[in-house]
Amino acid sequence: MVNIVVELSKYLMIIMIAIYTFECFAVFNFSDEHTKRSIMRRQNVLMFMIHFIAFLVMYLQTEEKKMIGFYAMQVVLFLAIILLYTKVYPKVSRLVVNNMCMLMSIGFIMITRLSYNKAVKQLVIVAGSVALSLLVPIIIRKVKVLSEWRKFYAAAGVVLLGVVLVLGQVTGGAMLGFSIAGINIQPSELVKLIFVFFVAASLKKDTSFRNVVITTVIAAGHVLILVISKDLGAALIIFAVYLVMLYVATRQPLYVAAGLGAGSVASVAAYYLFSHVRVRVVVWKDPFAVYDSGGYQMAQSLMAIGTGSWFGMGLFQGAADKIPVGDTDFIFSSIAEELGLIFALCLILICVSVYVMFLNIAMQLHDRFYKLVALGLGTCYIFQSFLNIGGVINFIPSTGVTLPLVSYGGSSLLSTVLMFATIQGLYILREDEEEDIERKKEQQLRSRRSGSRTSEPSGRKRAPEAKKASAARKSAGAKKAPSAGRAEAAKGRRASDKRTSGGERPQTSRKTRS
């Protein structure tokens, strides 16, 4: 019976996530708010159903009652996220909230399947990150001087990365972060957000060559510190984000060409300078040829994806726990093996939907600073997702970055949740701008209508007055006409008197003479 439930659960979850993914893009075709809300509610229902079926299967497989309690805590968390965001911020983007919760739920499912203890830690990290993120939209909306803190952003980014050089611990050949009171902190995850704000503040008004050179030097300093720390994944993300933001701000293809050229030279230099980079390139070429000397991880990943095929093996039916770092860097392989390639492809499309929403917000913002921030955050998110999934499927060499909101990790999860909260703040700003525009239009229409109404009564009042004036003129003309006739008659009499007095005789008719 359990096997039947496990087998049916695969297809049910695939169907539901396919419908969810379709509605992520279908919602853009509707302008009616009522229709959009109904789509958002259906997405929530689908998410909770996928979540329920997955944990039901894991409970039937393990028969551990703690699964029930843990599932209930996650449901409460997701309900709190949805209600808090929608009630505290009524103008929030429901699609961004839904996608954030869906990606988190997929992560919880796979992390719970691989390690229950890590899943509990992930739950605590998510709760704390969401609580902190609720303050971000308020800051974005109320603090009007964020675009003036360019020097602060530059200094904060360099200092945080410099701390890693001093206190950093080497993990997997790279110096990624340090520990405080048992808590692992990876500053490069937060520096990515700060760096976006720095570039936006620097290029918001001044795109002259001098300012571009200064900004590029500071950006190169960020990348150089990350390269020295051997955190090449974060260095590549910051490099790509800067190129995109620079091109959008300046519209100069030459800058992009120069940046790509410099990046190519740096990649070749990194290949010869760092041994672990050479190993990853060799593994990328043929992981099975170097199976025992570095290719084991990639080979397991590819075999897991091939084993899962289109519909997956089912939860606890595969060997996802055999994949090295299957809950962090290679969690996409774990998902593809047990939930199927169709499910994994839908996950990719959900990430693309998030990026499309980020771009949509960026294009509709009027403030140049916030427009660049939205663009930079969107580029950061989608490029990190590309690096993770591309490395897992051996499309590109592995870079060691996590899949945002899905992989296990504290700093990565916190920075991504803050990124989504920042986008929500920008979305609220966009809604405020649209309301201001509509309000101004309504005021103009009202002023025009009030002006036309005031002109009509005055015209009506002037009409009787004009009639009275014309009647008065007519009566005055009638009185002047007889007096003018009498004056002309008097002039005629005076003229005849003059002729008589001058000796002129009046002519008599011939009849009188005869």
From TrEMBL:
Pfam families assigned: FTSW_RODA_SPOVE (PF01098)
Keywords: Cell shape, Membrane, Transmembrane, Transmembrane helix
Location of the protein in the cell: Membrane
Taxonomic superkingdom: Bacteria
Annotated InterPro entries: FtsW/RodA
Predominant localisation class: membrane
Bilayer-crossing regions: 12-31, 43-62, 68-85, 97-116, 122-140, 152-170, 176-201, 232-249, 254-274, 339-360, 372-396, 408-429
Biased composition (Basic and acidic residues): 458-468, 488-502
Keyword Transcription assigned: no
Membrane topology value: Multi-pass membrane protein
Disordered: annotated segments: 438-514
Record's keyword annotation contains Transmembrane helix: yes
Biased composition (Low complexity): 472-487
Entries under PANTHER family matching the protein: CELL CYCLE PROTEIN, PEPTIDOGLYCAN GLYCOSYLTRANSFERASE RODA
UniProt-recorded name of the protein: FtsW/RodA/SpoVE family cell cycle protein
Annotated organism of origin: Bariatricus massiliensis
